[in-house]
Design a protein that fits this description.
By secondary structure, the chain is α/β, with parallel strands linked by helices. It has helices at 2-11, 26-33, 45-50, 66-75, 90-103, 118-129, 155-172, 259-262, 264-279, 288-307, and strands spanning 20-22, 40-42, 57-59, 80-83, 108-111, 135-143, 176-183, 198-204, 209-215, 223-230, 234-237, 244-247, 250-253, 311-312. The strands form 4 sheets. The chain has a 7-stranded mixed sheet with strand order 11-10-6-9-8-7-14, with helices on one face. Helix 5 (90-103) packs antiparallel against helix 10 (288-307), helix 6 crosses helix 7 and helix 7 (155-172) crosses helix 10 (288-307). The chain binds (2R,3S,4s,5R,6S)-2,3,4,5,6-pentahydroxycyclohexanone. (2R,3S,4s,5R,6S)-2,3,4,5,6-pentahydroxycyclohexanone binds at residues 144, 159-160, 163, 259.
Length: 323
């Protein structure tokens, strides 16, 4: 993801250039520097901040390392885009909120890029406008062809369903109050360490239940689709608009095989909005509070993954700072 963002910033975004890359692994650093020849490499974030070379920072480390990179950036008051999940657990998410609040300024944007996807934006407007009546239910499918070997079972919730956790709240405008994980029939093609696909039920305070099929061994391609059921109709977003080919008595449509292409436009719009906002001392997307709200539901989801039980999601009181 880091390399993808470097290429994006240096080739497609306006108003920013990559000046520093923090990467302790020298092979990875050399690879990343190929896309940002003017950038300097640093082994840790403190050295990069001290160099004075950075006006804004983008964190694309695995979630477990976000807090230790975020805290020095927050102390330096530098605008930051932090990939999701903001942190791996509730305690660290609260520490991040406290650090931002004590700095006195909103500087953290969390990388929930789906909020910038055309389909989700259109659906959110449809729900808000209520032309089809009240929203009754959401059916989401989140399918990956396969996952890398470092992807563990808990990542089904923390890394993958965390997107639906955020987007369901975005679509409905209502916090999630409970989550329940069901094991679907196991796919024997899934790596042994993974027990999936799973079905996750997310219930909002407004009474909408979203079902999420989370499936990371689906083989055929990358697919994220959402169906919204209203009183007077149904909407669906996310089907591939790839090329259709007619051949030998059949027709077929090209599918995405990775989120990097499925959400390419959304990533571009997300990062450009962040750059534009950072220039005027603001954030251009989901805040640290949104990051925390998602981490709190992930926490409930992980408990449900263990027990199979429906687990309530609970939240701290929202600091006035985030109103
Ligand atoms: C990955 O980290 C993402 O963010 C993708 O959007 C998601 O589809 C995938 O399952 C995650 O591992």
């Amino acid at each position: 993801m880091g390399t993808d963002h470097i290429i994006r910033i240096n080739t497609r975004m306006s108003g920013a250039v990559v000046t520093a890359i923090v990467e302790p692994d020298s092979a990875r650093a050399t690879d990343a520097l190929k896309h940002a020849p003017e950038a300097k490499q640093f082994a840790n974030i403190s050295e990069a901040i001290a160099s004075g070379l950075i006006d804004a920072a983008l964190i694309a480390t695995p979630g477990a390392f976000h807090e230790e990179v975020l805290l020095p950036i927050i102390s330096a008051g530098i605008p930051v885009l932090c990939e999701k999940p903001m942190t791996p657990d509730v305690a660290s998410a609260i520490r991040v909120l406290e650090a931002e609040v004590s700095g006195g300024k909103k500087i953290i944007q969390v990388g929930f890029m789906r909020r910038f996807d055309e389909g989700y934006i259109e659906l959110q407007k449809e729900i808000d406008g209520a032309k089809l009546g009240e929203l009754l239910a959401l059916h989401c499918a989140h399918r990956n062809p396969s996952v890398p070997e470092w992807y563990g079972n808990e990542m089904l919730i923390a890394d993958s369903v965390s997107h639906e956790i955020d987007i369901v709240r975005f679509l409905t405008g209502s916090p999630i109050v409970s989550t329940e994980v069901k094991q679907l029939k196991r796919n024997k093609l899934a790596p042994e360490r993974l027990n999936e696909p799973i079905l996750v039920l997310l219930e909002t305070e407004s009474g909408v239940i979203a079902t999420v099929e989370m499936n990371v061994s689906v083989q055929f391609g990358y697919q994220v689709i959402t169906e919204a059921v209203f009183q007077k109709g149904v909407c669906e977003i996310g089907r591939s608009n790839g090329m259709t080919t007619w051949e030998a008595g059949r027709s077929s449509t090209a599918e995405h095989v990775t989120y990097l292409t499925r959400f390419a436009r959304a990533y571009d719009d997300e990062i450009q909005a962040w750059i534009n906002a950072a220039k005027i001392g603001q954030i251009g997307g989901p805040s640290a509070w949104d990051g925390y709200m998602s981490v709190a539901v992930v926490d409930a989801g992980l408990k449900s993954l263990q027990t199979g039980e429906k687990i309530a999601a609970t939240y701290i009181a929202k600091p006035a700072f985030y109103n």
